[in-house]
Write a structure and sequence with these properties.
heterodimer; A: about 280 residues; alpha+beta; B: about 200 residues; mainly alpha; about 0% strand
Chain lengths: ~280, ~200
């Protein structure tokens, strides 16, 4: 065997990589008897432990760990969560009551709006049909209460809900206000004549629900996707807030930066009005 | 409570992430250190490790549970390194191994005469100097030293990693250690820890 081959075997011996006992014994004998081979053994052994002792590990930076986690989270596909609202609605009543209140979506400009209570039958339900936004909102709210309409996306994060709307194909900017005494619980997207429409729901501190349905006003003005009575459209175009109460439900309709918004709640109008706040809109 | 992305994903994806976190994340320090030694640059090492983990996660279903996850991750990192960094990295100038061999023989003759290996002198070297000596080795030799003496991989794992026979790993490691020894000896000479020959 060449001298160099023996030296290589010495390296393997140092690293405990010789699996053959005969080979091991042979190398051991050579180490004991041959000065050159023993020297090779000493150098190889020394360096193996020396390198290990001298080279120190650097901790991977925390920022790197966080970035990796973030990258991996992006690989996860969100799924639509089905929530039985009726069950969660009743479960909420098992919890202690909080401060009473129902909050409403509003901007600062909303405070100077002209409040006017209109006869429920006078304006909102005129010219009704399948595509009347007000009628649809009322119907949807009933379905939510009955558990017949599930929120397909469950989240308390306004940003996440905005993203959800975008992902689901809602083409207009949506408004997800933070309400003082209510928590966002989820959202759903519907489709009408090819247009995707945004709906989201809050639960108040007292367990009431506030449902907000919004659509770009073009959807109404084009009279193809949705409609509202002409009187109601003119009313809200003038910057006014339509409000009404019927059968224990409160209704608000107004226009907010190009979106027609309909709120339906099972809280009373007094509480809705009391909770009129200048909310921070999530942008 | 699960983070929102985990709470909002499928049970299958959630389990995949948790399994991956348990198996792969503990090796991040080792991967980062290896990437740092190969690239010589913290930002490049960062990018390399990020890319490695992303690829590993995407192909995690191909990883055979129960096998050496660390070795698998290192292979992914190596391939990324080869594809993205090796061409642009500054490679230590090629070494004439014959020169190394001659110098080594000179050191040996002196040590053999005195019947002991002058190990003590090398303990005076700073850790940074030793790291620099390792980094100055040609890539092939540097790789086997890191994988064997620092990371503790077996010859078989190293052979699989660098895609050479086990015999080549053995001889390469032997030469790498000799080369490193010569470099350390020169450092020690420059600092006066060892008499010049």
């Amino acid at each position: 065997m060449e001298r160099s081959e023996i030296f290589d075997l010495v390296t393997a011996y140092v690293d405990n990589e010789l699996k053959n006992d005969n080979q091991k014994n042979r190398v051991k004998t050579l180490i004991d008897k041959d000065d050159d081979i023993r020297y090779e053994y000493q150098v190889q052994s020394f360096l193996k432990t020396y390198v290990k002792s001298k080279v120190h590990f650097v901790e991977a930076p925390q920022s790197l760990r966080e970035q990796i986690t973030s990258n991996l989270f992006k690989e996860l596909k969100p799924v639509k969560k089905r929530v039985n609202l009726l069950e969660s609605f009743f479960n909420f009543f098992k919890q202690p009551a909080y401060a009473f209140g129902t909050a409403v979506l509003i901007l600062g400009a909303f405070l100077i709006l002209f409040f006017s209570t209109q006869d429920f039958n006078d304006m909102a339900e005129n010219q009704t049909g399948d595509s009347n936004m007000f009628v649809e909102a009322r119907s949807n709210f009933r379905k939510i209460l009955n558990g017949n309409l599930n929120l397909s996306y469950q989240s308390s994060d306004p940003g996440a809900i905005k993203e959800y709307f975008k992902e689901q194909g809602v083409t207009y900017d949506t408004y997800i206000p933070r309400l003082k005494n209510s928590q966002l619980i989820g959202a759903v997207v519907s489709k009408r004549n090819g247009e995707k429409l945004a709906h989201h729901v809050y639960r108040t501190d007292t367990g009431k629900l506030v449902y907000l349905y919004q659509a770009d006003e073009k959807c109404i003005k084009n009279k193809k996707t949705l409609n509202l009575s002409d009187d109601l459209v003119k009313f809200i175009d003038d910057g006014k807030l339509y409000k009404s109460e019927k059968d224990g439900h409160s209704f608000l309709v107004w226009k907010n930066q190009g979106n027609v918004c309909v709120i339906v709640s099972n809280d009373n109008m007094q509480q809705l009005e009391r909770e009129l706040i200048s909310t921070r809109e999530y942008k | 409570m699960l983070p929102t992305p985990l709470a909002n994903t499928s049970e299958e994806d959630r389990q995949k992430y948790l399994d991956f976190e348990r198996e792969a994340m503990p090796h991040m320090n080792a991967l980062y250190n290896f990437a740092l030694r190969m690239t010589g640059d913290p930002d490049d090492a960062d990018d390399l490790v990020q890319e490695t983990y992303l690829k590993a996660f995407r192909f995690f279903d191909k990883f055979e549970k129960g096998t050496n996850c660390k070795a698998w991750l290192f292979r992914i990192l190596k391939n990324s390194y080869i594809n993205d960094y090796r061409k642009s990295s500054k490679e230590p100038s090629k070494v004439d191994y014959e020169d190394i061999e001659n110098f080594y023989e000179n050191i040996k003759s002196s040590d053999v005469k005195s019947s002991h290996l002058t190990e003590d002198v090398y303990n005076n070297l700073l850790d940074d100097e030793v790291s620099a000596a390792i980094s100055s080795l040609p890539e092939d030799f540097r790789t086997v030293i890191i994988l064997s003496d620092i990371e503790g991989f077996t010859y078989e794992e190293i052979a699989d990693f660098v895609d050479v026979p086990i015999g080549t790993v053995r001889s390469r490691l032997h030469r790498a250690r000799k080369m490193l020894y010569v470099r350390l000896h020169k450092y020690a000479q420059e600092r006066g820890f060892v008499k010049n020959d």
